[in-house]
Protein: Aminodeoxychorismate lyase
Amino acid sequence: MFAADFPTLVNGQRTDSVAVTDRAFSYGDGLFETIRVCQRSVPLLPYHIERLKRGFAVLGFSGVDLELVESEIMMAVAQMPADEGVVKLIVSRGSGGRGYRPPIQPEYQRVVQCSARPDYSQQLAGISVFLCSTRLPEAFGLAGLKHLNRLPQVMARREWHDASFGEGLMQDSHGCVVEGTQSNVFWLSSGRLYTDGLVLAGVAGVARELLIREVAPALGIEVCFSRISFKELLQAEGMFVCNSVMGIAPVTSIAQHGQDDIISFGAEEALDAIQQLQSSLEVYYRCE
Structure:
């Protein structure tokens, strides 16, 4: 299927054009969601809408019609040439304002872009990850949000071109591993599941929220928030990365920037636990 077969809607109209004066283009003034479509349904949409609400509150996006946003997502899904796919939603503050100062009465712009879902079958079996040298900046008020400012992730992704690496790990300015370039990071230790609390940096992913609130508790696994250095992470029993489009990918080895050594990772018992989490997460997509 060609990319042109997948629809793009701008404010509910099928087009691929937006104003060059839009503040999303000038300043990254907006939020986005990357949403998995299964059998033409969007099972995790409530989680995405909840995260949008949090972001709107922080950015001062008042008056965005969320019912309209949801209806445009489903309108685009209905026009897709396949039952499976990915929806990227962007909500910007629109055009206007002087310099950084936002307009008093913004005209919010909504872009819904559909595409095919990549084949993640190899990643779901286990991936090698790359430790990036690019650090995440601290952004206290913005930590957790999926805003449009993604330059640190872009710079980190430039660091490797070897297709054998499925993801890159990113540290904050203190040397703690926070997330992947496009995923959240979890690790297992002493029967507990750990992840960064995302107080200083990072994106609170939808799959991460689902694991914390529903999947892990249903399996009797305690979830804890902790900050961890890369050296300490190597002592964990197992690790995985996840996002709402891919699901869970166990980490089997790690390579460091500028070093040739590849560190094998993950005890067999931990991998079994990760695969159980992986299977349980997929149930929520109703794709099994």
Observations:
- The mean pLDDT is 93.
- The radius of gyration is 19 Å.
- The first helix runs from residue 23 to 27.
- Helices lie at 23-27, 45-59, 66-78, 121-124, 151-157, 206-218, 230-233, 268-283.
